[in-house]
Amino acid sequence: MRTDIHSNCALRSIEMKGICVTSGEDVLLENVNLTFHCGQLTALIGKNGAGKTTLIKALLGERQYKGKISFTDSHGAAIAKPKIGYVPQYLDFDKSMPVSVEDFMAAAGNGCAVWFGKNRKTRQSIRETLEKMECGYLAGRRLGALSGGELQRVLLAMAVEPVPDLLVLDEPVSGMDIAGLDLFYRQVTELRDTCHMAILLVSHDLGLVRKYADKVVLLDKTVAAEGSAAEVFSGEAFREAFGFEEEAEWN
Amino acid sequence: MELIYGFLEMLPFEMFQYDFMKNAFLASVLIAPLFALLGTMAVNNKMAFFSDALGHSAFTGIGLGVLLGLDDPLLAMLAFGIFLGLVITKVKAANLVSSDTVISVFSSAAMALGIVILSARGGFAKYSAYLIGDILTVGQGDLLVILVVLLLAYVMWAVFYNQLLLLCVNRSLAASRGVRVMLTENLFVVMVAVAVMVSIRWVGILMINSLLILPAAAARNITANARGYHWTAAVFGLFSSLTGLGLSYSLGVSAGAMMVLTAAVLFFVTYLIGKRRK
After folding, report:
1. Is B215's pLDDT higher than 90?
2. Strand order in the sheet with A26-37
3. Lowest mean pLDDT among B17-26, B118-127, B244-253
4. Which of A171, A251, B133, B234 could form a disulfide with A89 if both were Cys (CB 3.0 to 4.6 A apart)?
5. Looking at the predicted structure, is the pLDDT value of residue B101 above 80?
6. What residues make up the domain containing A102?
7. Is the CB of residue A112 less than 8 Å away from at least one CB of chain B?
8. A117 with B226: Cβ contact below 8 A
9. Average pLDDT over residues A119-141
């Protein structure tokens, strides 16, 4: 149902074709074929070790792969330098690092070196970017002093500025409370609807997946199942991967 | 040069009547802030142990220089330092062994190899000066080399700082913002290796890491943003080097060690200040 509402610009898309990733003898991904459409939130689910993180690393160009990943704009032309917004799962950086939210945002922009200082225009635009995710008040805080939810909102604000061709959310809500979680997903769905962003969400929380995903992809080294949440959750591959009928858990 | 010398002689410090003290002073002014700046990032990336290993590897560099019959082992030291830094980074990235183990293995192997080569002709004592270094031996030609390296490093620092900062928060995030992760990481390693090798003769293998880590560690105690961190570290580096140099002159002790002690005092003072604030 929901698919029909948002897929009004389905021409812009990201296509993964025959993606294979190996590490020594181990096959991490085998012949993955997927398409992400703009205005659609695709959820990627699967057991630990099913290759979810590897798939994201391949998308980000951090991991070498065989096959082809192509970004196509609404005129069918290839996007040469695709922008990918990425919200990582958790940040294991040194929490005592003297870096403010503003420094961090400025470093991701294309301005001059952060130690040199930031001019008023940069600071203003950083504040506006943060304000969109209702976290402008965090600008001066130290990055390591933020709570899980605050950090995720800052990361989301950064990931969608400039508007990316694909937004990748990697287990974005681990360690977030219920209120923060709701706010986060409200913001994500808003981005999907207003900016027609293509969104890829990796999540273990099948309840959230059911609630927010337009399309669900079950990964087990390759695409084991694909379709609406209801379709995938009731399929054979899902039972094999998770060993129980999600439907029963749910109702 | 005469102009700078003349200026230093006008200062009311007894030590500036000697040319070697003037050179030592100028070298400290050039080296200390650079080390402090590189140190800010090394501490962020938890690379204190890594830079220590680089320092130790200088022995092998010197040894290779001797084997190759070079008059000045600097080139061999640079080449080996860069090589070792890149190899450690590469092995670390493979993630098969924990990183402090990797560094420890390379560090001890490089040091041992160096000592084996240098002691082969029974003349290791000749090279033991490298252990604590002697900043009073800086000549005018050396100053020029330092100046060139320094200028290059500052340019790189201005260009790559933001990318390095993103990188030390999260690699994948940096990759998603267009940072070429491996390249940037390697560039930083090369910068540290070059800075260490160029100045190790004067600072000494045992002290060099302190010069890199201590000012940044002290600055971290009392700063909350990148700009403050950066400049405070630079000032701390400069202050501890010059104070150390001055004290070493009046007390007649090793300059490098005095610099490190001054920086250590700064660390403890700022630690207490920082603790009280929090």
Report:
1. yes
2. A26-37, A13-23, A66-72
3. B118-127
4. A171
5. yes
6. 92-162
7. yes
8. no
9. 88
Indicate the residue of B162, B223, B229 with minimum beta-carbon distance to A113.
B162
Instruction: Report pLDDT for A4.
Output: 41
Tell me what pLDDT residue A251 has.
40
Stronger pLDDT, A149 or A139, i.e. the higher one: A139
Decide which of A162, A180, A205 is a domain's last residue.
A162
Task: Output b/e per residue, B57-88; b: 16+ Cβ within 10 A.
Answer: bbbbbbbbbbeeeeeebbebbbebbbebbeeb
Q: Do strands A26-37 and A84-87 pair parallel, antiparallel, or not at all (unpaired)? A: unpaired
Torsion sign (Cα): B210, B46, B84, B86: negative
Structural domain total, chain A: 2
CA distances from A61 to A68, A86, A149 (A): 12, 12, 27
Q: Which residue has the higher pLDDT, B78 or B13?
A: B78
All residues of chain A having their beta carbon less than 8 Å from the beta carbon of residue B171 are 62
Residue B11, pLDDT above cutoff 70? yes
- The pLDDT assigned to B278 comes to 65
Answer whether residue B30 shows pLDDT above 60.
yes
Residues A170, A79 share a domain: yes
Average pLDDT, chain B: 88
B239 token code pair: 């202050």
Mark yes or no for CB contact B157/A108 under 8 Å.
no
Pick from A60, A143, A155: CB nearest B175: A60
| A11 and A111 housed in the same domain | no
Nearest to B114 by CA among B128, B132, B96: B128
- The minimum CA-CA distance between A107 and chain B, rounded to whole Å, is 4
A-chain CB neighbours of B229 within 8 Å are 98-99, 115
Structure confidence at residue B119 as a pLDDT band (50, 70, 90):
confident
Structural domains of chain B, with CATH: 2-269 (1.10.3470.10)
Residues of chain B by 3-state class (helix, strand, coil), percent to 5: 85, 0, 15
Q: Are A143 and B170 inside 8 Å of each other by CB?
A: no
Whole-angstrom distance, CA of residue A29 vs CA of residue B64: 45
d(CA B59, CA B237): 25
Tell me which H or E stretch contains B204.
Answer: none
Amino acid identity at B27:
A
